[in-house]
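Re: the request from the purification team.
They wanted to know what the chain is likely to look like in 3D before they choose a buffer screen. I agreed to run a prediction and write the result into the notebook, where they can find it.
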Amino acid sequence: MSLFKWRLNPGWYLFAFGYPIVLIAIVSLVYLLLGNSLDFTVLSDRLTAYLPTLLFLTVAGGGNEEPGWRGFGLPALQRRCSPVVATCVLGLVWAFWHLPLLAINPDVASGAISTTQILLIAGVTLVSITTHAFWYTWLINRTGSVLLCIILHASYNAANGLLLLVPEEALRGSSYQSLLVVMTVVLGVSVSGLLITTKGRLGAS
């Protein structure tokens, strides 16, 4: 695994930059089909902010975790167990690492939702983040490039923060919970396809 491995087929860069956008587009479509509404008036301002946000997140926000997660942790685990088991273990650790971010959720911080709802959100969040890890495993196993994982991580954070066309003030209560569930289901379906296609090897030789 190499942090600075960058001479790769352009298709890998297309995946790292584009997959999160496609994922958010599918989540948005499913959310809309479930009878919810999207606010397309926010799109122009968010597109303007997308590239600067992506660059910042690549350097300082989220992406800079990848040398630890996929550069060190995943190879060490894959030397001892299968790619699926290694991904589940690392994915859960990765998920618990992010769990404290729930404290800044407006509903949680204000005490507007019950303990049961908080536990439900925490559980779905753990599943969602762990599921994400499978795409990172496949990407690093196929390319050996930590740089691509950094880009994928930053791209997802940017797309999730800016391309879900729901105003921030609307991401409260049932709207936030519905989006979280939809995201987790869409991710689960995509990872199921990945596991079937790779026969559980996730790109490992």
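For the purification team: Residues 115-143 form the longest helix (29 residues).
Please add any questions underneath this entry.
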